[in-house]
Amino acid sequence: MQKLIITKGWILFGLGRLAPMRLYTLSKRYFVLVFVVFFLCFGLTLFIGIAGPNVIEAKQYRSEASNSSKVGQYTLQSPVMSTYNQQLWLMCRIELRKTDDSSFQNNFTIYVKIHGVSSDATVSYVDNKEHSRPRTLSCAQNCDEIIIVHLGYLNYTQYNLDVRFENLNNLRYTITAVTFTWKTYNPTFSQVEIWFRFVFVVLTFMVTCLFTHSLRKFSMRDWGIEQKWMSVLLPLLLLYNDPFFPLTFLVNSWFPGMLDDLFQSLFLCALLLFWLCVYHGIRVQGERKCTTFYLPKFLIVGLLWLASVTLGIWQTVNELQDPTYQYRVDTGNFEGMKIFFLIVATLYILYLLFLVIRACTELRNMPYVDLRLKFLTALTFLVLVISIVILYLRFGSHLLQDNFVAELNTHYQNSAEFLSFYGLLNFYLYTLAFVYSPSKNALYESQLKDNPAFSMLNDSDDDVIYGSDYEEMPLQNGQAIRAKYKEESDSD
C-alpha cells in the first residue's frame, strides 16, 4: 500500500509538470468522433484501393508436350517493359496426366541463360554464364508453381531467356504441358503508388510541422513520454512513406529498393519500441536510466530489426549475383534465421503483454493516466487487429514458408491491400499526434505546472467523465484554490 501511495504521488507530481495534452480536454463525444474520423479515413483509402488496378499483371506461354522426353529446352521472350514494371518474375507450372490424387516430390535441375534487349534492340548477356539451380517438383492433385527467375530491378526493356530442364525424364506420370508465366508490376498501379506515397509524404510533413509547432511553448523536459516519442515517430513515418521512391523509376539500380526496405523496417521497429517504452515509462515518472529502462528494449527490438534487414540484404545480394537464387536452396541458414526471428518476436510479445497488464493494474484508478492507457490500448488494439487481417489476406496461412521472401511481392491481389496497410499506419500516427498535441489553452495550463494540486483540478466535467479519484473533493475547495491563485496573480 505504501508503495502504491508513493507511485501515485510521483504520478501526480509528474502530471503537474507535463505539457498538457488535448487528450485531457476531450469529452466522450469527441473521443467517439476521433475514432469515427479515423475509420472514415481508413475506409476511404480502402475503397480507393478496391477500385484501383491490380498490382501484378501476368502473361502466359503454354508449351504442349506428349511425353517427358520432350520437356527440354525453351527459348522465352518477356513482354516489353518500362521502369514502371519495377520487377520481373518467370514462373512455371508443369501439368501431368494423373489418374489419382497421390502426392509426390521429384528433384530436378533448371539451367537458365539471360539475355537483355536494350531499347535500341541490342541484345547482350545480363551475365556471361549459365545459371543452374536445383528445384523440387511437388505435386498432389496439381503441381506447385515454381519460380525460375526473379529480377529485382529492370535494366533492359526486354529479356530473352534460355531455360533447360534436366532429370524430369524419370517421372512416373506423363507431362502433358508446361506453362510459363511472366509477372511484373502493373504500370498503372506503379503510378497510383507514386501518387499515394506523395500524398502521404505531404500529409506527414504537415502533421509533423503542426505537432512540433504546438509544442514550441514548452521545454522539452516538460514533454510527456508520448509527445517525445511522437517527435521521433513522425519523421520516421516520413521516411516510411519514402520521399525518394520516384528514384526507383529514374535510376536502374537496386539501391532505391533497398533504401525503401530499410526505411520501412526502421519505422516498424521504432513503432514496436514506442509501445514498450510508453507502457513502461508511464509508470516510471522519475529518471529513466539507460541500462535498466532502455537497454533491454533496444536489445529486443534491435534483434528484430537486424533479422529483417539481414534477410533483405541477403536476398538482394544473392539475386544480384544469380537471378535464379531462392531462399529454399539455402534452407539450413534460412530455417535458423526464421527460428531466431520467431523466438525474439515471441519474447517481445510476452514482454509487451507484461508491461500492458502491469500498467493497467497499477494505474487503472489514476486520473488522466488511466485515460492515456485506455486510449492508446484501444487504438493500438484496433490497428493490430486490422493489420493481422490484412497480412492474412495478403499472404494467407503460408506467411513463414521457406519461399515466402522470394514470393513476397507476388501476393498482392489489388491496390486495396497496399493502400490499406499504408493508410492504416499513417492515420494511426496522425490520430496519436492530434490527441497528444497540446490543447488550445495549453499556455494557461503550463503556467500552473508548479502547483501539482491545482494542475489536477478542472472546472469541467472531466473528473466525472473519466472517473477521477478526486470526485469526492468538494467543488468549493477547488474554486477557493482558483480564486486564491487569481488574487496572487493580480497582486503580482
Can you give a write-up of this model?
There is one protein chain. By secondary structure, this protein is α+β, with helices and mostly antiparallel strands. Helix content is 53%, strand content 16%. The chain is built from 14 helices and nine strands. Strands 2, 4, 5, 6 and 8 form a five-stranded antiparallel β-sheet that branches. A four-stranded antiparallel β-sheet has the order 1-9-3-7. Helix 6 runs antiparallel to helix 7 and helix 9 packs antiparallel against helix 10. The longest helix is centred in the C-terminal third of the chain and has 33 residues. It is elongated, with a radius of gyration of 29 Å.
What is the N-to-C succession of helices and strands? HHEEEEEEEEEHHHHHHHHHHHH
Average pLDDT score: 78
Strand content: 15-25%
* Measured distance between first and last alpha carbons: 41 Å
Low-confidence stretches: 1-16, 397-411, 448-482
What best-fitting shape do the alpha-carbon axes yield? Answer: elongated
Structural class, judged by helices and strands? alpha+beta
The radius of gyration over CA amounts to 29 Å
Please, how many helices? 14
Helix content: 40-55%
The number of E-state strands comes to 9
Q: How can the largest sheet be summarized?
A: 5 strands, antiparallel
List the helices and strands and how they pair.
Blueprint: H1 2-17, H2 28-51, E1 56-64, E2 73-77, E3 88-97, E4 104-117, E5 123-125, E6 131-139, E7 146-151, E8 158-166, E9 174-185, H3 187-214, H4 225-240, H5 247-250, H6 255-281, H7 290-321, H8 331-363, H9 369-395, H10 415-436, H11 442-446, H12 452-455, H13 462-466, H14 475-491
Antiparallel strand pairs: 1-9, 2-8, 3-7, 3-9, 4-5, 4-6, 4-8
Helix pairs in contact: 2-10, 3-4, 3-10, 4-6, 4-10, 6-7, 6-8, 7-8, 8-9, 9-10
